[in-house]
Structure formats: C-alpha cells, structure tokens
C-alpha cells in the first residue's frame, strides 16, 4: 500500500484521479514546466506545470451527473496529427486539461504528466513536504482586518492563491507579484465577502467538499467505470 496519496479532479468534478506515491520511490516523481510551442498552443498559456509520475501510480474514474453521460463523453482524449504518439486527456464537459502521456514500447518505462493545477490544494501542500515544490514557510503573513458586523455572516468567500508559485518567481526574471486584500460586509451583516487580487509585473517594483471526499473514496477503492451521481 502507498505511503502517500495525491488527489486531483476536473473543475466540474466528473473526472477524479488518485496517485499512489510509495515512500521509497518519491524521487521518481517530478514537477516539470513545459514551455514548448505545442503545449503553449494547446493550453493557451506561456507554460504549463506538470506532475510527472509512473503510469502504474495513477488511477482514475468518472462520475456522470445525468443519465445520458458516458465514460467516453466525460473523459475525452485528443491525439494531434502532428504528435500521433502523444495522448492528451481532458474533461468533455468543463474542459479542464487533466493529463498527457506518450505511448512507449515498454510499459514499465511509461510515465504520465498530470496538470499541476488539477491537484487539490491540500495535495499541492503535500508536494512541498515531498520536496517537489518550494516551501511557502516564508510566505508573507496574511494581512488581517477587522470589521464590525451585526450578525454572524452566512456566507464567506475566501480565495486562495498558489504561494508555492509566487515563491518560485519572487525576485526572479519572471517578475514580482503585488497582492491586495480587502473585504465587504452587507448592510444587514448577513453576508461577508473577502477578496484578494494578485497582480503580476515584470518591473522591479516593491511589492472541496464532503461530496468530493466521497467520490475520492470510491476512486481509491479501484472504481474504473462511469458512476451516476445520486
């Protein structure tokens, strides 16, 4: 049994996956940054961050939200005519890019690249403990503000960024990040919204749910077919 597990999903939750990471083999996992022209066009992004692991560590399943949804319609695979040995996998409904791999002659040599952004936030933190991402221990303390409300808020929006990425590019040639935080409380005090804006600049200026857990438990039990969500 694996000593560590990483979990990921698409944006809508129809696709989920689990990566079993043996403690003695963590060095076989890598975080890669791909800025090839083909990947830039595919993701419409300057570069893409991958988690590269042996294919044998990876397992996944799909969940249908409606009766007419099938495993094939949920998990789509694209093969470019210019890269016939490369498979790219994405969600057929929300469009989240999930994985990429190449067909090889020896299955023992096969690796899969998983989009780093599809991992759960808490598992991104686990990658730091595995030494695959820089630690965010030195991340600046979150500014705290206090506001008077007449009643406990019924809804709170608390966005979370990617401190590991910010720590990587801080003081580098990629530039710096400027962060602004604030909040707003409704007049009756029933709703409180917290916001955070992160601005990237190239100049030298100063600066998850119970339902999801249930689905991950089913995936960890080895489910491989499409499931209807009750």
Automatic annotation (TrEMBL):
Residues 139-159, 201-230 are annotated as: Disordered. This is CENP-V/GFA domain-containing protein. The lineage of its organism: Eukaryota, Fungi, Dikarya, Ascomycota, Pezizomycotina.
